[in-house]
Design a protein that fits this description.
Two copies of one chain form a homodimer. Helix content of chain A is 12%, strand content 35%. The first copy, chain A, has three domains: 1-15 and 261-566 and 580-608, Copper amine oxidase, catalytic domain (Beta-galactosidase, Chain A, domain 5, Distorted Sandwich), CATH 2.70.98.20; 17-127, Nuclear Transport Factor 2, Chain: A, CATH 3.10.450; 135-243, Nuclear Transport Factor 2, Chain: A (Roll), CATH 3.10.450.40. Chain A has ten helices and 25 strands. In chain A, the strands form five sheets. In chain A, strands 1, 2, 12, 13, 14, 15, 16, 17, 23 and 24 form a ten-stranded antiparallel sheet that branches. In chain A, strand 18 (362-369) and strand 19 form a beta hairpin. Chain A is mostly beta strands and 608 residues long. Chain A has helices at residues 34-46, 67-74, 135-142, 149-157, 242-245, 338-342, 407-416, 418-423, 496-500, 534-538, and strands spanning 4-13, 18-19, 55-62, 88-96, 99-107, 117-125, 165-170, 187-194, 210-215, 220-226, 258-260, 267-270, 274-277, 280-287, 291-301, 307-323, 335-337, 362-369, 375-399, 431-449, 452-460, 477-482, 508-512, 549-559, 576-581. Chains A and B meet through helix 3, helix 5, strand 11, strand 19 and helix 7 of A and helix 3, helix 5, strand 11, strand 19 and helix 7 of B. Chains A, B: Belongs to the copper/topaquinone oxidase family. Chains A, B: Residues 131-229 form the Copper amine oxidase N3-terminal domain. Chains A, B: Its EC number is 1.4.3.-. Chains A, B: This is Amine oxidase. Chains A, B: GO terms for molecular function: copper ion binding; primary methylamine oxidase activity; quinone binding.
Chain lengths: 608, 608
């Protein structure tokens, strides 16, 4: 088995403008509501521009207003926020008549259940690549193999029951002219597993050796190969459900904690999307491709009269690239782009309360469109919680000299430091400690794409961010701190999967802000060829000094499978931190109020 | 100001032997008790081998039994533990008559308040370097400047009151023949700060420009230079104590969590030192130089019939090297070796309950010897707690197809997977998630050396460690995962500070186990010359394949000071993980019992 490299690229757009106030009435970054998605659907289906049927919706999402309008709306850079609502628009990608259609839709009333909408632009996309699969692509394709005689025969030959076999759509990647073009049809591959309820671990029991090619628009199998009939692994030891694996359990069990907050929750969520916590405020959105979207994150500078300073304009996971790097005929094309092919938001797992997130979490829903354009409620897909792991944000301990055990030292201290000892004296020694707990705010989504579960956290620390001017004359900014290994792609530069994801050869990219450069692997990532990705855009060599920039960072893991990853692998983490660097005049945590009854400036003695 | 590089080297000794049982009666790795330290003191002072007085104790610690004896005692590799107690010995370094003396002491009764002891070996050390400072070196030296007329005059010239000035002993490092040898005397430097109770932040107000040389054995100032009278910085904005900085506080405050454990604590500490938790057991010791010492950590393999497998024989922080890399006359010699010069255990800060450690922590004390050999109780210097940060140890979500919103998909599922749907059906879709919380066990010490506070955590995960045999035929072992940046030393190879800490040019070293190779910077780190450090030992090029090995890992941070680090810097972290690699046959967490009422295998539906 080859090893898999998993790279997640994050889009982080930053500006540095002092803001005044924010109006939160129907925020322009709010994701489309169920009513808005319905109105969009009606507008597209009613449009005479695309009469062909069936028409399937592959992407429906917010077409965000232009950045200057958002800044003006929110009152950034001006003395007050405007009260005018911005135009509310959606962007739609649909397939009909074997073509990819792009629509821009204007929605008349943002918050009304009777919202109406109309198409304001339409285009046919004729370049390489396809939009994300719809959920229905998966579900409908699953039904094909059981009715396909060669597959039924392959299954029979392996001594299996076709009723116990389930199949899934696997993106085919892109391998240039080395593979059939299928006349430009939207094709994928189908691979199957034994799925007989003997184990929950369906991925441990592949029907290895069989690969089908499916035309997803015609929803028909158009290619078939049964190369070799491998024995299907046994179910023994593969199930991971508690009632199947134990007892005996490893014991005694680690005792789980429950976080309670005697002083109550420290954050609130306004209008369903705007979070205020400690010295931070930000907007949480949802997109069927990107998943969680963090916007307009600003930090308050108490030392600067309580001014708000913006740190992030918009940030989200732009792509998750997972080349398996196994040359076998059934594995080489496993070169997934999970966001652009399957959709992180559409694949978000409903969070298990008190398990995926702690007891003090608040949960948010998302809405996306199904293949027919109807809204799907994705329940509990985002949780927000204050995280307290028992760590310390900052501390300092002062003892005069060292802890002492005799009176000689004590009298020496008195001799040397009479004023100090008079004021803060305790027994033989003079000591005090000042400690602040590390409490952070986490915005979490868990995305399950096939056999991988991604826990994607945005964690806010009270330590803050970017600024335009600071007084000492240092270069102001923030620094990027990798917190975990980064994975350099090991693919050759001219390998097809690497050409599609050529940006993974560098961990950090900076580009000038451009609203259309949002998806690192291109708008049409499925079967993309690398002609519309970050590395390509960067060849234009645009100026990035003294302009509004976007930071792209690749978090990566080389997943070399170990025995311990079976049947379900333990969590592995990669992360990075953006940390202010000479933005604040001093540690912004100094003005963080210590919790009630917090034992600071305590004075303790040690004796022999 | 130059930047500081901070490297922490950890000693990790591993073996891989299946153990049978452990007798915990007076464990041979228990640190010396107060009674034992007293007995050791009496034995040294009563010995005719060193009649010279005064005699000061620089190090008193456990002289651990040889490894084969420990293994035999603990029953590793045999069918049962022995019941014979091993000889109990102490190692002492003392200064008398201007010489460094080493003693080995045998203690007659380990657990008796009337323990007696006798010297069984004595040697005079005549090589380069000196033992750790005693606490009294600091305290006594502090008293010297106020009685030293040139210093009193320097202070007066700066418009300061000598009663408001405090001084500290700064190790002088080693700079070869470029500096005076002072006839081989044990000298250090003295530097001072204004200490007038106007601010707790004494390090922000140095009496810059003045450096004194002190002979610590004679306890006299033997060198003095006042190069330039800088203005002492103002106190404004320097204090970090809550009552001095606020209000206004940054608000609303982040709400701290309190971890409660409804199912009780998951660990217990036997005989004060032996910790049992989940699938782990290990011994926690204390040493005045190393601080926390973890020994005999073993993991239980439930899948292998509940056998115990040893992972770490002994592990501790061997050195903390902090070269400031500032060429100024008052700063160039700041090339601290905090463990070898000041002692991590002796500098351990009393942990602030519910602040340095969460509410569910258990606290341990330590004992070390003061300069006169008397035991000093270091209260609450180690805490042990179960850490629950709201993270997930492993999870997997299975949905058949994707969440669906119509009956077509549901009927397709029924058609395809009748057995499965019969068993686990819920509405339109079939989904379940299995999640286990990440609960870890942390052993924490906070060490304050001057202006730096080090939080040193050993964190145990239920995910496990090394093994001798496994069945698949993979290469067994564990892997080292850096979890955070490592700091490569930027000093030139022939720079004196780098020669002392030449091992910092590589992040990972492996040596064959040798009981005497314990301190990475040498037994006598103070003014050491690099002739007895890890890099030197490694030049012997000993075999490391198929032998008992020691892993040395350097965690490092380049601390480039930013405005935000003032007046107290926010916590920065560096870490590494040792993770089993084909040791277990499968994920050992699979057999971790889920918490009561844990929502696994839940079945939920999404509808449109």
């Amino acid at each position: 088995m080859g090893h898999r490299v998993l790279t997640i690229v994050l889009f982080v757009s930053t500006v540095a403008i002092t803001m005044a106030a924010i109006s939160l009435n129907a925020h322009p970054f709010d994701p489309l509501s169920a009513e808005e998605i319905t109105a969009v659907r009606i507008a597209v289906l009613a449009s005479p521009l695309v009469p062909a049927r069936p028409l399937y919706f592959h992407y429906v999402g917010l077409d965000e207003p232009d950045k200057p309008d958002i800044l003006s709306y929110a009152g950034y850079g001006t003395s007050s926020a405007t009260t005018t609502n911005l135009p509310r628009r959606a962007f739609v990608i649909a397939r009909a008549d074997g073509q990819t259609h792009e629509f821009t839709i204007e929605i008349a009333t943002a918050t009304n259940a009777n919202a109406s909408a109309s198409v304001i632009s339409h285009a046919v996309y004729r370049g390489p690549g396809f939009p994300m699969f719809t959920p229905n692509d998966q579900i409908s394709a699953m039904a094909l193999p059981a009715k396909y005689p060669p597959f039924v025969e392959s299954v029979r030959r392996r001594g299996l029951d076709v009723a116990n076999v389930g199949c899934g759509v696997i993106s085919r990647g892109w391998f240039g002219s080395s593979e059939p073009a299928y006349g430009g049809a939207r094709v994928a591959k189908l691979q199957c597993v034994v799925f007989d309820n003997a184990t929950a671990n369906i991925y441990a029991r592949p029907v290895e050796g069989v690969v089908m090619v499916v035309d997803l628009d015609r929803m028909a199998i158009i290619g078939y190969r049964d190369r070799a009939a491998y024995v299907v692994p046994k179910t023994e030891g593969t199930d991971y459900r508690a009632e199947r694996v134990g007892p005996p359990f490893t014991g005694p069990a680690a005792a789980p904690g429950v976080v309670v907050q005697p002083e109550g929750s420290g954050f609130r969520i306004e209008d369903g999307h705007f979070v205020r916590w400690a010295n931070w405020e930000f907007h949480v959105g949802f997109d069927m491709r990107a998943g969680t979207v963090i916007s307009l994150a600003s930090v308050n500078d108490t030392d600067d009269g309580g001014s708000w300073r913006r740190v992030l304009y918009r940030s989200f996971v732009s792509e998750v690239f997972v080349p398996y790097m196994d040359p076998e005929e059934e594995w080489y094309f496993h070169t997934f782009m999970d966001a652009g092919e399957y959709g992180l938001g559409a694949s978000a797992s409903p969070l298990q309360r008190d398990a995926d997130c702690p007891a003090n979490a608040v949960y948010l829903d998302g809405y996306y469109a199904d293949y027919d354009g109807n809204p799907v409620k994705a329940t509990d897909v985002i949780c927000v919680f204050e995280r307290y792991a028992g760590d310390v944000a900052w501390r300092h301990y002062n003892g005069i000299g060292e802890p002492v055990g005799d009176e000689t030292a004590s009298s020496l201290l008195s001799l040397l430091l009479p004023k100090y000892v008079d004021n803060v004296s305790c027994g033989f020694s003079v000591q005090f400690a000042e400690v602040r707990p590390e409490v952070t705010l986490v915005v979490r989504m868990v995305v399950t794409v096939g056999n991988y579960d991604y826990t994607l956290d945005w964690e806010f620390k009270t330590v803050g961010s970017i600024k335009t001017v600071t007084k000492i004359g240092n270069q102001v900014g923030y620094r990027l701190i990798p917190a975990g290994a980064t994975a350099m792609s090991l693919l050759a530069d001219d390998d097809y999967p690497q050409r599609r994801a050529s940006y993974t050869k560098k961990q950090v990219w900076v580009t000038p802000y451009n609203k259309s450069e949002k998806w690192v692997s291109g708008l049409y990532a499925e079967q993309s060829t690398g002609d519309d990705n970050l590395a390509t855009w960067s060849k234009r060599n645009r100026r990035i000094k003294d302009v509004d920039i976007v930071l792209w960072y690749t978090v990566g893991l080389h997943h070399v499978p170990y025995q311990e990853d079976f049947p379900v692998m333990p969590t592995m983490s990669g992360a990075f931190e953006l940390r202010p660097s000479n933005f604040f005049e001093r540690n912004p945590l100094i003005r963080t109020k210590p919790p009630g009854n917090y034992p600071n400036c305590s004075c303790s003695a040690r004796s022999g």
